[in-house]
Amino acid sequence: MNKDEQYLLKVENLAKSFQLENQKIDILSKVNFQLERGKIHALIGPSGSGKSTLLTMLAGIDLPDRGDIYFNETNLTALSSAKRHAFRAKNIGFVFQQFHLIDHYTALENAALFLEMMDDDKAEEKASSLLKEMGLEQRMNHFPTQLSGGENQRVAIARAMVYGPELIIADEPTGSLDLKTGQVITDLLFKLVREKNKTLLLVTHNEELAKQVDHLFEVKEGRICDV
C-alpha cells in the first residue's frame, strides 16, 4: 500500500466562518489532517470549537469557505449538492448521540431503513444478521420506546454500518448513556469497526474513551492538532 492508499480521507487547508450580524466569526482555519484507512480516530475539543461544523463538511452536508476534502480520490468540495448527497449515502455512516430512530419502526425496521431506501431486496436479512451480532436477537421486533438507551444506540450503530460504508462518523455516541453502558457500546463499536475493516472518526468529551483510539486529534484555536 502506497502512502496515498493508506489514507481514506484527506483534508487540505480547510476554512469555515459564519456571519453573526455584522461580525465574521472564524470557526476553522487552515485545517489539515488525514484519516488512516481501517483505523479508529477520535476528535476532542471544547464545546463551540468547531467539531460538529467539521463533521458536517467531512460528510459533504456543508461546504467549507476554502480548502478541499478528498475521500479516496473524490474531492467532495468539487461535487454538486446532489452528487455529494449520493456519495454520502453510499460511503459514510452516521451515529448520533440521540439515536434518531423512528419511534413507530421496530429495531429491525430502523436498522434496515437505509437499505430499504436503496431497494436492497435483502435489507431485512442483512439488518437481522448485524443486530444478532450486536446481541439484539431477542429485541428486533421491539420499538425504540421499549428498548434501553444502550439498546437503541446498538440499533443506531447497526443502521449506520449495515450497508457497508467505508467511513463511520460517530458524534458523541455515548454522550447520553451512563459510563458503564457507554463503555459497552464503545467496545462493541470498536470491535465491529476493526472486524469489518472500516474507518471510524469519533467525536467525544470522554478522556478515557479517547485513550483507546489509534489516532487522537484536538481542535485548538481553529486548527486540528495531533495529540
- Percent helix: 25-40%
Number of strands: 10
Mean pLDDT: 92
**Unreliable segments (pLDDT under 50, ≥5 consecutive)?**
none
Query: Outline, from the CA principal axes?
Result: globular
Main β-sheet description: 6 strands, mixed
**DSSP helix count?**
8
Strand content: 25-35%
Distance between the termini: 25 Å
Keywords:
six-stranded mixed sheet; alpha/beta; globular; four-stranded antiparallel sheet
Structural description of this entry:
- By secondary structure, this protein is an alpha/beta fold.
- 35% of the residues lie in helices and 29% in strands.
- The chain is built from eight helices and ten strands.
- It has a six-stranded mixed β-sheet.
- β1 (7-20) and β2 (23-36) form a beta hairpin.
- The two termini are 25 Å apart.
How are the secondary structure elements laid out?
Elements: H1 3-6, E1 7-20, E2 23-36, E3 40-44, H2 51-58, E4 66-71, E5 74-75, H3 81-91, E6 92-95, H4 107-117, H5 123-133, H6 149-161, E7 167-171, H7 179-195, E8 199-203, H8 207-210, E9 215-220, E10 223-226
Parallel strand pairs: 3-8, 3-9, 6-7, 7-8
Antiparallel strand pairs: 1-2, 1-4, 4-5, 9-10
Helix pairs in contact: 4-5, 4-6, 6-7
Short description, anyone?
The chain is α/β, with parallel strands linked by helices and 227 residues long. Helix content is 35%, strand content 29%. α4 packs parallel to α6.
